[in-house]
Amino acid sequence: MTLISKIDSFLRGLVVHDDFLIVGTSKLREETTTFKGLPFSVEDSYCGIYILNRTTGKPMGGISYTDNIREIFSLKLLFDVQVPGILVENDESHDKSIMADPNLNFWIKQKKQ
After folding, report:
1. Distance from CA of residue 36 to its chain's centroid?
2. Does 17 reside within a domain?
3. Where does residue 52 rank: exposed (0-12), middle (13-18), buried (19+ CB within 10 A)?
4. In-domain check, residue 85
5. What pTM was computed for the model?
6. pLDDT tens string 43-71
7. With helix as H, strand as E and coil as C, how does 23-59 read?
8. Residue 81: exposure state from Cβ atoms within 10 A (0-12, 13-18, ≥19)
């Protein structure tokens, strides 16, 4: 096994597609003692989705969440989907719980310091 990239966050999802690795990361929970011995701190960790070159490990792009989103739980690529929706899987009627509107976008605004 060869190390191709180092990400100072808790890895929570990996999708391999063609020459790319799509990696989900979560910020370490401040109150956790389970992962206390990791080589990075809560302050150094971040939440986001990152795309790396599969061979070189070079970052190709990504999204960092800097405010309210602190954890990514899983990743899934959606092919041939133009307007993705939000699905609540733990609801017994989840097949009717999807929300999608091509005219709406939702973004979290950063808090002013």
Report:
1. 22
2. yes
3. buried
4. no
5. 0.67
6. 778 889 999 999 999 999 998 888 778 88
7. EEEECCCCCCCCCCCCCCCCCCCCEEEEEEECCCCCE
8. exposed
Which range marks the domain in which residue 61 is found?
Answer: 10-77
Please give the pLDDT value at position 38.
75
| Euclidean distance between CA atoms 49 and 67, whole angstroms | 14
- Is position 100 within any domain? no
Would residue 38 count as lying in a domain? yes
User: What residue ranges of the chain have pLDDT lower than 70?
Assistant: 83, 85-113
pLDDT at 60: 93
For residue 17, the surrounding DSSP H or E stretch is: strand 10-17
- Please count the structural domains in the chain: 1
Dihedral angle sign, alpha carbons of residues 1, 59, 21, 67: positive
Q: Which residue has the tokens 């097949």?
A: 95
Q: Which long-range contacts (CB under 8 A, 24 or more apart) does 103-106 make?
A: none
